[in-house]
């Protein structure tokens, strides 16, 4: 069994890799920083005695390379049973408003790049009639907010894309899961001073692993975010605009 | 790549005294660590592992702190020899979890498994086996460090030997250890074959200690509330790694019973009503602890956790001391008589310590800023009684320095620079090496400033 982690150097990605390796999966770690991915692969080999390798991957450069990457991974580690799209880029809202190139990067990493690589994985899985694709989306993609709508809209689009992909692949025995993450203790939340509890990457990873195993389609982690988003989504636009969220 | 995120965080050591606000970065990889170094904007810097040192060794109030706990990749392992290279943020507990099933144990462990390897080297920690295994640093083969110059350099006993020496027990002041190579110890099982013996006073302690030289691990708890004929009564524990056959006979020993009692007392959540530790509750606890243990000798085979890390089962037990925090006083004295004098001062002071630990070190003195040397070590936890406590500790310093002993910097938050110099005569040699590798004092800590080890 093989898991492919795209965007493998983030703490959540590494924690997920660790959980799958502990369960005996071979692990392909794809990231821009190949050297770090290689170190992470070494770590999994030592800790769990599994096969693990680092691969070069950039979500936005060379969309054509994405299919080649999937083939390369399958040629070295065997068919990909589970693929996790773990990369994301928050960007800076203010800077994105001032300079479209910055906004574009946020959109391309979170949406275009994710779609491109998901398509490559989907084709391989579809032809075999087996597999599971996990996309890390975000609660930020549930409602456009003044403070991060570039990131939010790209994640929102990703959520919709995954929904469509799920419909398309349902009859092909390929499972697609959308994970909507709230606050997890990563560099993105390190600075945050919030009363809302922040989950550890390890716990988030275990939850993702369990949900994937059960064939869950969409889930929030931590779970209470489902409730919070329910409330946020129900606020009428007229009121929402005035809340400085 | 984006610049380093520096967030203002409240940091404290395990004693929760002092607590300081500092700009912190938490790199996720070696390359982000180098990045943080370059993004420090000329400020002083310090590595901070899990903050299990008690006082201000891992704190830096005017400067920036790099939290190393996410640097935890395992980089190389040789199944045949047990030689391992891991990043500095890996915990002792993680090492045991991963390698014990393969027959390897960490050669020197402290009283908690929640310490990083970087912290273990920075404080050159000692375990219950100092006489047999020395300190943690004795099992380190080489290190890769980020230095004040911004370079990454490997050092060992052969390569940049001075840097290697000054970093082991160097309290984080020579640079940031990125990863290190350590030699694990082969064991048949994780279980410990142990004996515990109740003793009535200090003389009995020293006698049992002398008879225990063929036990790999020894440690004792003593009741420092008692005075007179019962001064220094306690429970002696000695053990060795059990064979595979013995490990199958794992039993509930008296150790579990006393551990369980300590857990109940220390469970922070039981203290909602703010019945904090004071002299009366400490006295009661000490009484109960002693009597829970049956008189005489007791054999058992126990798991490594209750033996090495009895208090880890209680998360955040340091919070039972409340907002004021607590101070540990750990010293070593080469002379037995001094132990008696020290216990006397403490019991007369009416400031009780909860769970005092006593053991004898081997003869080895590690030099530099490393703590252990031949003699008897005593570790005492005092609730922060304020001024009277500090005054008493100053008195203890005098007694300790007088006989050529010293206080453990990894547990200190109040020693004076002058006292420090008396206690650590090799400090000047250490300072020379440090100055060579970090002439501007890029790496600093509140402890180093207090003790005059780096520019103020
Ligand atoms: C319950 C308990 C029991 C203990 N028992 C013992 C014992 O039996 N024996 C013993 O010796 N100690 C003992 N200690 C103390 C503890 O082992 C040491 O303080 C240890 O250094 C803590 O590790 P840490 O990762 O929390 O380091 P921190 O407290 O975060 O840092 C300690 C020092 O190491 C430096 N440091 C940390 N990481 C790095 C790095 N990557 N590069 C360079 N420097 C670094 C810091 O700058 C600091 O000076 C105990 C502590 C507790 C809480």
TrEMBL record, chain A:
Q: Give the record's keywords alphabetically.
A: Oxidoreductase
Cited NCBIfam families: PRK07102.1
SUPFAM superfamilies registered for this protein in UniProt: NAD(P)-binding Rossmann-fold domains (SSF51735)
**What range does the record give for the signal peptide?**
none
Pfam families, A to Z = adh_short
Q: Transmembrane ranges?
A: none
Report the family membership. Answer: Belongs to the short-chain dehydrogenases/reductases (SDR) family.
Any single GO molecular-function term of the entry would be:
oxidoreductase activity
What's the protein name? SDR family oxidoreductase
InterPro entries from the entry?
A: NAD(P)-bd_dom_sf, Sc_DH/Rdtase_CS, SDR_fam
State a GO cellular component annotated for this protein.
Answer: membrane
